[in-house]
Design brief:
The chain has about 900 residues and is mostly beta strands. About 5% of the residues lie in helices and about 40% in strands. The protein is globular.
Length: about 900
């Protein structure tokens, strides 16, 4: 009887629970999304239980409605911790790292007793786990951690700062991050590219997942055409015209790994549709194409007829067509020839004007040559202002001695399989610019293939840069693919992939300013320190006075000191001295915060290019460099490039702290630099004043680069003679240097030091705090043994952590005398020998980080250090 009663009560309790579940489901509007089921289950459970987190807990977006994840995406179920802003908080963090690699971050309360909880889950595992990791170095601004070797390889990792049981919002490492797409409007069947970082599984070139959907409707997965970590291509499926969301997933992080939405406008017809239906043959209007007769009148008549009948085409059969005045290109008209080698339109009279005034919209030039013939004075061959949807396909622009193109405030510019012979072109604040498989031939010591002063959404893929004719004195450029400056405001969203350069550098310093030659050059110096702070919320900052920017690209607020340092936000609007931001602060600033009001450059990737300078790299002091990130540059990645014959392989430069000219959270990884003067320049330069407390560099990572056959220094870590513009949390890891006399030199004004006589900076100069060197290898190779140096710092106020530095064949005579050797086994790693991992600590070391086993040591005596193989910290 008792059993029957118990069974009856059990059934009644089950019916009640089921009814409650159904009632809650009805209240939820029949929403059976995973979030709703989780909440209902939690509300009706008879016993409290810890539940896993959902993406919304961390502010991670998911498509709505949320699709089933396809096969190949990792499982990922992190715990749902209580979070509070009362404890330590991360302001900004480096976004990419594998296990046994270092993550750098800024924030508040990251030092002292703070540790970091790292969640990871193996791809097919049912559950993940959390490992507590101590910081490598930390202070009140920045911290670095080493991801344990025990983590699954190339997973998504969540990182919570934790102190005394209090955790704040976690940040994700290796999470998919889409920035932009292009073209942003197109018809079905068009190839579209998504640009960003961490876009592919394991940052490889095979797997990524694209999901496209209308508004709140369901969508479909689309198979990518090509994949790399920073760009994924796909073809628009057959879709009705309208606005669609594009989501992307790199395969890591389960439901937490989505990035999006990006907006794609699917058109019902191409901007150039119908132009092939009515064709006007230029010969029918009296053009001779003889290279002798003046065909100006005939061409203008044909263009007028095509304009009246647009969309249409003007056809130029093989021949050379001479003109004596500017031609105005109509909208919705295509100019078509028989090929660059067969059809030429040549300016034959000096006109002191552009040869072509571009169409307002939907213009095309195809299979012909436009030759300015030196007759435009100082004007560009092609002038395009406020133009939309202009396409050049297999066209030669011969603008020897002047710019091929000058563009202002244009959108949708496509240059494909063409040749531009020029001094360089200017694109102002234009956007959605795509340059693919072109040949650029530079003349007249031209500044740059592309000069951009604002704008966004810029892509260069598969282009080739060389001098036009090295037998002529005016047949050289100075080696620049691209120059960005912030005169027209902030710029973002840029990509360079699979481009090549040849002999691209200043060749004769008696004829050209040799302080040039940076092939990808960001000179972003339009900044000022902004005082008058009054208050801040998550999305706003109020100042005593703040006028709205009149620049097309607007301005950004960058926290360059105090609480929240390292964060950058774009100003969406200004009203009554209140700046509204494009996204919330991670750490809300306060009166201790210092702001730069700046035009910035952000969100760019330079991937898999071949950059070649000149063989004279060690003979004269040019500034030939593959990539220069100079001033207010943020979230830039330089990855897998082949670099040779440069004065400096790659450069990161902070400038005057009085202006807040500071590059933050940059990543240089997997690059190869050979046959150059120096490999990597990182530092502060060209300062004529300074303010303490303004950070010059934060969170910058230099990882797994290879440097060989260097005439001078592997890493130039430069200081200047004024305070401020300090670096914090800089990481050099897994880099390999072979064939060089000097490995890593931290000294004064290194840019102009070529003989090994390095100088100490003044004690008040810019400093480098908490620099991490991990698993770097310095091999002298065939360079001279005498005086060879592995690591040397001339600034005693700088602080270091050197772990597993390996030196081969280096004299290593001039190390700092205050370094400490200590064995460390990071959390999550196991070792049968405590001496398996050694590091040296320079500068001030907190006593809490020492143990009785710490041993002060002389790093190496001159006699011992000149042996064929030596280690900084012998085991």
């Amino acid at each position: 009887m008792d059993r029957r009663i118990k069974l009856l009560w059990f059934l009644i309790a089950g019916w009640i629970a089921l009814a409650a579940f159904a009632w809650n489901a009805k209240a939820a509007g029949n929403d059976w999304s995973p979030e709703t089921v989780r909440k209902i289950a939690a509300s009706t459970a008879s016993q409290p239980a810890q539940v896993n987190a959902i993406p919304g807990d961390f502010g991670f977006p998911v498509p709505d409605p949320e699709p089933m994840l396809p096969v190949g995406i990792d499982a990922f179920d992190p715990p749902a911790y209580a979070m509070s802003t009362a404890g330590p908080s991360i302001a900004e963090i480096s976004k990419t790292a594998d296990r046994d690699e270092i993550v750098s971050m800024t924030g508040v309360k990251l030092d002292k007793g703070t540790s970091f909880d790292v969640f990871a889950q193996a791809a097919a595992a049912r559950d993940g786990s959390v490992i507590s990791v101590p910081s490598l170095r930390a202070d009140d601004v920045a911290a670095t951690i080493l991801l344990p070797q025990s983590l699954p390889a190339w997973s998504m990792y969540l990182v919570w700062p934790e102190r005394e049981g209090i955790r704040s919002k976690p940040f994700a490492i290796n999470r998919t991050e889409s920035w932009w797409l292009g073209p942003e409007s197109a018809v079905s069947g068009t190839m579209i590219s998504v640009y960003g970082r961490n876009l592919s599984k394991s940052n490889g070139t095979s797997t990524s997942f694209i999901y496209i959907k209308p508004g709140r409707g369901t969508g479909q997965y689309v198979t990518p055409l090509s994949v790399n970590p920073f760009k994924v291509d796909f073809k628009i499926p057959e879709l009705a015209a309208g606005s669609y969301e594009v989501w992307i997933h790199n395969g890591h992080g389960g439901r937490f790994g989505w990035s999006g939405p990006l907006t794609l406008s699917v058109l019902d017809r191409s901007p150039w549709a119908g132009q092939d239906r009515q064709i006007f043959n230029i010969r029918d209007f009296g053009a001779a194409g003889s290279g002798v007769a003046d065909d100006t009148r005939a061409i203008k008549s044909a263009l007028a007829a095509a304009q009246s009948a647009a969309p249409s085409t003007v056809y130029f059969p093989s021949g050379t067509y001479l003109i004596a005045s500017r031609l105005d290109a109509p909208s919705n008209v295509r100019w078509m020839g028989d090929g660059m080698e067969f059809t030429e339109i040549r300016l034959n009279t000096n006109i002191d004007d552009s040869m072509i005034d571009g169409p307002g919209q939907n213009g095309q030039f195809e299979n012909l040559t436009l030759n300015a013939n030196g007759k435009t004075g100082s004007h560009p061959l092609l002038w395009i202002a406020s133009v939309s949807n202009l396409r050049l396909q297999t066209v030669r622009l011969n603008a020897w001695g002047v710019a091929a193109v000058e563009s202002h405030d244009s959108s949708g510019l496509y240059f494909d399989s063409s040749e531009l012979v020029e001094n360089g072109s200017f694109y102002g604040s234009s956007r959605q610019i795509f340059m693919t498989s072109n040949r650029f031939r530079m003349t007249g010591y031209g500044e740059s293939v592309v000069s951009l002063w604002g704008g966004r959404d810029f892509s260069m893929i598969g282009n080739d840069l060389a001098n036009a004719d090295e037998t002529r004195d005016d047949g050289y450029g100075i080696g620049r693919f691209f120059v960005a400056q912030g005169h027209f405001g902030s710029m973002k969203n840029m990509y360079w992939g699979d481009n090549k350069s040849h002999q691209a550098a200043p060749h004769d310093c008696s004829k050209v300013d040799c302080n040039k030659g940076e092939q990808i050059c960001f000179e972003i110096v339009n900044s000022e320190l902004k005082g008058g702070f009054k208050d801040a919320t998550a999305n706003t900052v109020t100042f005593d006075s703040l006028p709205a920017s009149s620049k097309p690209g607007g301005q950004d607020l960058v926290i360059v000191g105090g609480k929240g340092a390292g964060q950058r936000r774009h100003i969406s609007s200004v009203s009554r001295d209140v700046a509204t931001l494009d996204r919330p602060w991670n750490v809300i600033p306060d009166r201790s915060s210092r702001f730069a009001l700046a035009a910035t450059a952000s969100q760019m990737a330079v991937y898999n290019n071949v950059f070649q300078g000149r063989s004279s790299y060690a003979e004269h002091d040019s500034d030939s460099t593959a990539v220069l990130l100079y001033g207010n540059v943020y979230d830039a990645i330089v990855d897998r490039n082949q670099i040779s014959q440069m004065r400096h392989g790659m450069m990161t430069v902070a400038l005057a702290s009085t202006l807040g000219l500071s590059p933050y959270f940059l990543q240089y990884s997997n690059n190869t630099v050979t046959d150059s003067n120096s490999g990597l320049y990182v530092g502060t330069t060209f300062t004529d004043s300074g303010i303490a407390g303004i950070w010059g560099g934060l969170g910058n990572i230099y990882r797994k680069n290879t440097f060989s056959n260097l005439a001078h220094i592997g890493v130039e870590y430069e200081s200047w003679g004024y305070n401020g513009a300090d670096y914090n949390g800089t990481v050099f890891e897994g880099n390999r240097f072979k064939g060089l006399p000097y490995g890593f030199i931290d000294a004064f004004r290194l840019m102009w030091t070529h003989d090994g006589n390095f100088k100490a900076p003044p004690l008040y100069s810019s400093r480098k705090y908490n620099t991490i060197l991990y698993k770097n290898v310095f091999d002298r190779g065939t360079a001279s043994l005498s005086g060879s140096t592995g690591f040397k710092s001339f600034q005693p106020k700088n602080t270091w952590l050197n772990i597993r530095i390996h030196m081969d064949g280096i004299c290593n005579r001039e190390h700092r005398s205050n370094e400490v050797a200590r064995s460390v086994i990071p959390v999550g790693q196991k070792s049968s020998r405590r001496s398996n991992l050694f590091h040296s600590v320079g500068g001030n070391v907190a006593s809490s980080r020492k143990s009785p086993r710490d041993v002060a040591m002389s790093l190496s005596s001159p006699k011992a250090s000149c042996k064929r193989e030596s280690r900084l910290n012998p085991t």
